[in-house]
Amino acid sequence: MVLALALAAPAPASAELRPGMSWYWQLSGELKAPAYAEVIDVDLFNTDRGTIDRLKRSGKTVICYFSAGTIETEGSKSWRRGTAGVQAVSRERCLEELSLPESRLGRPDNRRFPHEAVGNPMREWPKECWLDLRHPGVLAVMKGRLALAREKGCDGVEPDNVDGYDNEEGAGTRFRLTRADAVRFLKALSRDARAEGRLVGLKNAAAVVPDLFGDFDFAVVEECGEQGNCAAYRAFPDSGKPMFQAEYARFTPAWCAEARRLQSSLTFFKRALDGTPVDGDRPYRLCP
Questions:
Q1: Res 90 pLDDT > 80
Q2: What is the CB neighbour count within 10 angstroms for residue 20?
Q3: Domain contains 223
Q4: Which residues of 104-123 are buried (b: 16+ CB within 10 A; e: fewer)?
Q5: Taking the model in full, what pTM does it have?
């Protein structure tokens, strides 16, 4: 099943994002929300409406994270705390999410995913399984998540794990996804996000930037300094849109110099993204 292409919806009228905006990213733990940050990126499911309202009253733009390309199993709420010694789930365990009681679900809407759309476990994050982005049932679940983002007052959304096409070595996703599959899915997701009045970001997925930077309002990029491919995302700042860059390695001045050239918003975090200190007691480190 293939999603139909649609014309890109216009960006939300309230969009005031710009290259070089300061940002902070935390997906679990007691939220720190440092004063320097103009943009705060938080977990959609684990952050309540009251917290989002408080952040917005203090002048923050709030982005809400969710996985758009994987199903997260029970226990994956702490997925970023490290994978050493963590036993990978099987596809069968991911399929159990379709029938578990809500209190035991990795995410409260997991039972809505179609059986045939659940794929193989991810290599990097052993408590998640890939989804078939071509299946309309997956987009239907994401529409529900976009509606939740609107209900909670999120200004924008960060849909993750949309690069299954780049993970097809060996057993892969199970679906042999292609770059074209990702482009179709992401265009539809962007259209639906903008229809809900939300800003929408492209997460990683460098290969599809030329096709999609016009459909997205910002980029969230992990470890492009480490990987040496930050320039692949420069279409965003070059077109007046922010590129929020996260690095998890030790502070590297050369990456700061490149970020200034690209107008990328580079911040150093611990990979856990749980508020763990990086620089003294601060859970982040900024470029000078």
A1: yes
A2: 14
A3: yes
A4: ebbbebbeebbeebbbbbbe
A5: 0.92
| DSSP annotation of 48 | -
SS3 223: coil
- CA-based nearest residue to 73, from 44, 93, 47, 46: 93
H-run or E-run covering 180: helix 179-195
Selection from 97, 96, 88, 159 nearest residue 125 by Cα? 88
Q: What tokens does 252 get?
A: 């590297």
Establish if 6 belongs to a structural domain.
no
Separation between Cα atoms, residue 58 and residue 165, nearest integer Å = 39
Residue 13: the pLDDT is 40
* Strand ranges across the sheet with 70-72: 70-72, 128-131, 118-121
Q: Which helix (H) or strand (E) holds 137?
A: helix 136-152
Beta bridge mates, 130: 70
The winner for highest mean pLDDT among 39-48, 121-130, 166-175 is 39-48
CA distance 201 to 1: 25
- Could you tell me the CATH number of the domain that includes residue 122? 3.20.20.70
261-282 per-position pLDDT tens digit: 999 999 999 999 999 999 999 9
Is 158 part of a structural domain of the chain?
Answer: yes
Query: CA angle at residue 88 from 85 to 94, to 5 degrees?
Result: 150
Assess contact for 198 and 157: CB atoms under 8 A. yes
What domain range includes position 125? Answer: 23-286
In degrees, rounded to 5, the angle at the alpha carbon of residue 275 between the alpha carbons of residues 33 and 34 is: 20
Q: Under a CB-based contact definition with an 8 Å cutoff, are residues 199 and 11 in contact?
A: yes
What is residue 104's DSSP assignment? G
User: 195 phi and psi, to 5 degrees?
Assistant: -65, -30
Average pLDDT of the chain?
Answer: 91
Residue 231 in 3-state DSSP? Answer: helix
